[in-house]
Amino acid sequence: MAAKVARHPPAKKPVLVLNGPNLNMLGKRQPEIYGRETLADVEKACRGEALRLGLAVEFAQSNHEGVLVDLIQVAREKNAGIVINAGAYTHTSVALLDALNAAELPTVEVHLSNIYKRERFRHHSYISPAAIGVIAGLGTQGYLLALQALARLLVR
Ligand code: DQA
What are the tens digits of pLDDT across the range 21-30? Predict the structure, then answer.
């Protein structure tokens, strides 16, 4: 029997690049720690990298934990993977861990700063158990490396 050939390739779901609280302040916020690039600069760089990798991407940022949970719940159906910088919720949020576990999507956790070089309360991440990998301390390049890791899983 001849193999069935799809008339249209399945629509490629985008990777969600999700940023949490205070990341909308990038560029202005403690530039000695987080650098001078803005979140718009990060988005532009990610779009360029995604194009190069053959990935579709979309971006969201919220300062509100429940909104981030809602976005992750929607992502379960809508997105192929997640790159998340959960900001301070990284160190506090069981709700984000539960949402990421429920989403069952390949997820890369990103931090601009090296959280292990900073205060002790930043050394623990609630969300890492839901991530395939964690990138910390490489600045905005971390987001691009996260996209590269997801592209290896998602792009064929
Ligand atoms: C951060 C590190 C967190 O500890 C902090 O609360 C942030 C940003 C980072 O990208 O380095 O808001 O996630």
Answer: 999 999 999 9
